[in-house]
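User: quick one, sequence for these tokens?
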């Protein structure tokens, strides 16, 4: 609501996130300019001031040209960029950009298709190891000049040629963003899975971050980048993660040390069977100290990493975590041996290397890409547990489905367990702005239905009982696990008496004191004092904390801050709890100039109070409270002492916003345009066609790809969701009133394409890819428009993905069409841009014409 302009890309925010979009509407009513850039004209487009159609998969070209415009026209916020970003930092002489290597960076290994040596991406450093800087921004090796050279080829002409966007329309976007950024004005960028579900999704988001840093929009009211999450607590499930490669609070999952063949050096060969060849081969992490050295930092806020991991180990293993200063507990933490993400594991399932799977509110048989392959993979399991509200496709594939099924040939034993709905359980959601909000249970779930919390807790109890007498070392992690979340007394108002105490779990996540002051006697979770916030966490075993970023949400027994409901104030600080420390805008030190004064009165947010000698403002300052703006670090300073009083990005080792990423990304330090894995044109920017580090799983018959120039599949397809249905439809397609609003699968296509293929509005059409074929109703509409790409007409179609073979409304599974090549950093699928063909008629009906 504080934005002067809002750019929405990779999202149909009005339909997929309507509650959040209400704030966009309010901002527009106050004068903000709303821009929507998307392949598909939607309700978001209809409510925008400016709507632009673009080709799916070309986002980096569009954003890269905006970056070039800002740099070439001196539209960047100079004082912000020089002081708060790494623009002035010099890179090493041996760094080579994509301009030098035609689409690749230095350090690429063609054999493994990875950047095995990222050392050349590092900063130039002086004799003391400090980055060398040039505040004039003139040195050819400074990040600013590297950035200018890198994006020089991202011209308006390239936008027109690659994206299909007329340069005049693109120019309106560039001018609007530049005019609404700087001291007096700020612009926000909103995105969703339209960006993330691409083979270079992380780098698209990086391009947006570069743009916002150049414009001075990070850490300021009305600025920033908002990742719109698809569920009420998707943010929460990455904060306290359900991800294979993260511990709570974004601490990396420890990795086993692998040899050059990808074999775990400390386990049997079976331990790494099925591990992806791009497995961990970094520094050894076999001891706690090695893990801290590999993942922590000597400078910046991550210098507190030892306190956070040690407190996490205390929360997991209690007294065991005090043995050998945490080393015993660290040995109990599972170590990853490769890529164990869901989609990669699906390949291992298909190859018979996984015996069982638990699906809690997940439906890969319809909801995951290459869903036909997913269903085949489920057939290879010995057992499958599905917990859901209904018998979803993943529970029914063995007796029902789009392909003929013979149950006698399927070995998988399936256990379908009834789950509780959101209104039937208590707890908190963490939404897209990191806000924890507690919600109460309205009613008991029916019959044998139970909450996920109940299921996981009681499964854990039974496993502990099962392994209690085992002498096998591999069972020690279960035996040592702290697992006591019983209610102190039965909840009389509810029928289910053995539901675990969710407030006790919140207390463990928040953190508590393990040792009594000046004593060796230990508290237990039930009677231990709460810690007030994460600065209280220690590396000496005296504190326990399940997720350090959430510490402060429950600082005292009667103070569950997620329950707070005071809507007053500029930043609603009394409503819920935003991690970290209830800050509503992270890095908000950047809302003031280097001297600590607001950039402008209009955008005043956090500032230095000289009289009080502290930072103050409308938000909780995201900065050491008493560090003066003119503080200069002494030589050799460590921790937060190594950051000056004008280094706002305190999670970074150098305190700067990274225009250039010197370490941490698997596909390069700067965003680079690669075509989608399946694309209608050759890459016009480089000879490297698609992301060189993507996970291709080449030559698998179960994941066939359409090569460049394949005349059988000349049409781009992009997928999206509808307001009336949710994901693959397990919750919504059982509701008659929602089915009445959106009764069946349809495909949106332009009148030009419909005429070309003889397809009638309201009739049937068949969509095919190398993975499969589906049928849908045809919606012939101007919401999809043909584009001129590289001198040729390129057609796009749009497909919702909410249907399957279960529920009260049935339809073809859109995800049967999509391939399963994965983005290298987070292993997400490319569902937003791939190639297909369309023909009139039903899949197997007489109306079909070939």
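Assistant:
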């Amino acid at each position: 609501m504080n934005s002067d302009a809002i750019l929405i890309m990779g999202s149909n925010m009005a339909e997929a996130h309507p509650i959040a979009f209400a704030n966009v509407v309010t901002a527009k009513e106050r004068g903000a300019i709303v821009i929507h850039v998307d392949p598909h004209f939607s309700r978001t487009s209809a409510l925008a001031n400016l709507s632009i159609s673009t080709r799916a998969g070309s986002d980096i070209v569009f954003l890269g040209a905006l970056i070039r415009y800002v740099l070439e026209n001196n539209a960047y916020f100079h004082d912000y960029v020089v002081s708060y970003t790494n623009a002035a930092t010099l890179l090493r002489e041996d760094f080579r950009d994509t301009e030098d290597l035609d689409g690749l960076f230095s350090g690429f290994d063609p054999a493994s298709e990875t950047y095995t040596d990222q050392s050349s991406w590092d900063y130039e450093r002086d004799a003391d190891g400090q980055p060398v800087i040039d505040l004039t921004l003139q040195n050819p090796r400074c990040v600013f000049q590297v950035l200018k050279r890198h994006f020089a080829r991202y011209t308006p002409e390239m936008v027109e040629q690659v994206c299909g966007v007329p340069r005049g329309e693109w120019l309106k976007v560039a001018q609007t963003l530049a005019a609404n950024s700087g001291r007096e004005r700020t612009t926000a960028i909103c995105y969703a899975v339209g960006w993330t579900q691409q083979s270079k999704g992380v780098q698209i988001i990086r391009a947006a971050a570069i743009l916002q840093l150049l414009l001075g929009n990070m850490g300021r009211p009305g600025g920033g980048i908002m990742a719109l999450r698809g569920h009420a607590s998707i943010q929460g499930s990455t904060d306290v993660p359900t991800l294979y490669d993260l511990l709570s609070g974004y601490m990396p999952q420890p990795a086993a040390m692998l040899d050059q063949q990808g074999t775990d050096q400390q386990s049997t060969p079976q331990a790494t069977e099925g591990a992806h060849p791009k497995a961990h081969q970094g520094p050894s992490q076999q001891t706690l100290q090695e893990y801290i050295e590999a993942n922590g930092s000597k400078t910046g806020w991550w210098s507190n990493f030892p306190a956070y991991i040690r407190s996490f180990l205390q929360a997991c293993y209690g007294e065991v975590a005090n043995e050998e200063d945490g080393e015993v507990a660290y040995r109990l933490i599972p170590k990853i041996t490769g890529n164990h993400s869901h989609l990669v594991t699906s390949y291992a399932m298909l190859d018979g290397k996984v015996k069982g799977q638990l699906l809690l509110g997940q439906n890969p048989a319809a909801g995951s890409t290459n869903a036909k392959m997913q269903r085949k993979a489920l057939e290879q399991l010995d057992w499958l547990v599905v917990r859901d509200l209904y018998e979803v496709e993943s529970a029914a594939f063995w007796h029902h489905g789009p392909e003929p099924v013979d149950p006698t040939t399927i070995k998988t034993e399936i256990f379908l367990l009834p789950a509780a709905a959101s209104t039937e359980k208590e707890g908190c959601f963490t939404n897209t702005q990191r806000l924890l909000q507690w919600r109460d249970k309205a009613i008991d779930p029916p019959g044998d239905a139970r909450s996920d919390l109940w299921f996981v807790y009681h499964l854990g109890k039974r496993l502990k009982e099962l392994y209690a007498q085992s002498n096998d070392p591999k069972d020690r992690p279960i035996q040592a696990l702290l697992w006591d979340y019983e209610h102190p007394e039965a909840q009389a108002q509810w029928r289910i008496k053995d539901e675990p105490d969710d407030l006790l779990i919140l207390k463990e996540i928040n953190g508590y004191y393990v040792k009594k002051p000046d004593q060796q006697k230990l508290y237990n979770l039930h009677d231990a004092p709460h810690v007030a916030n994460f600065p209280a966490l220690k590396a000496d075993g005296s504190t326990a904390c399940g997720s350090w970023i959430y510490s402060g949400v429950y600082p005292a027994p009667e103070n569950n801050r997620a329950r707070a409901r005071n809507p007053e104030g500029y930043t609603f600080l009394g409503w819920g709890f935003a991690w970290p420390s209830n800050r509503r805008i992270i890095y908000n030190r950047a809302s003031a100039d280097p001297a600590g004064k607001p950039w402008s009165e209009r955008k005043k947010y956090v500032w230095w109070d000289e009289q009080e000698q502290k930072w103050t403002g409308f938000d909780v300052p995201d900065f050491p409270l008493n560090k003066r703006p003119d503080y200069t670090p002494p030589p050799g300073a460590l921790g937060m002492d190594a950051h000056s009083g004008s280094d706002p990005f305190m999670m970074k080792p150098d305190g700067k916003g990274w225009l250039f990423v010197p370490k941490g990304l698997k596909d390069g330090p700067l965003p680079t345009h690669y075509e989608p894995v399946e694309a209608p044109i050759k890459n016009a920017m480089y000879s490297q066609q698609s992301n060189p580090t993507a996970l291709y799983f080449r030559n698998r018959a179960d994941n066939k790809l359409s090569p460049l120039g394949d005349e059988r599949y000349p049409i781009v397809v992009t997928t999206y969701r509808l307001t009336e249905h949710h994901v693959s439809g397990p919750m919504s397609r059982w509701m008659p009133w929602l089915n009445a609003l959106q009764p069946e699968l349809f495909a949106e296509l332009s009148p030009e394409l419909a005429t070309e293929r003889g397809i009638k509005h309201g009739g049937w059409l068949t969509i095919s890819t190398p993975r499969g074929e589906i049928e849908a109703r045809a919606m012939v509409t101007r919401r999809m428009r043909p584009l001129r790409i590289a001198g040729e007409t390129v057609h796009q179609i749009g497909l919702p993905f909410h249907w399957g073979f279960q529920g009260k409304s049935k339809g073809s599974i859109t995800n049967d069409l999509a391939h399963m090549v994965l983005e290298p950093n987070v292993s997400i699928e490319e569902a937003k841009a791939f190639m297909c063909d369309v023909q009139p008629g039903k899949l197997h009906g007489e109306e079909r014409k070939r």
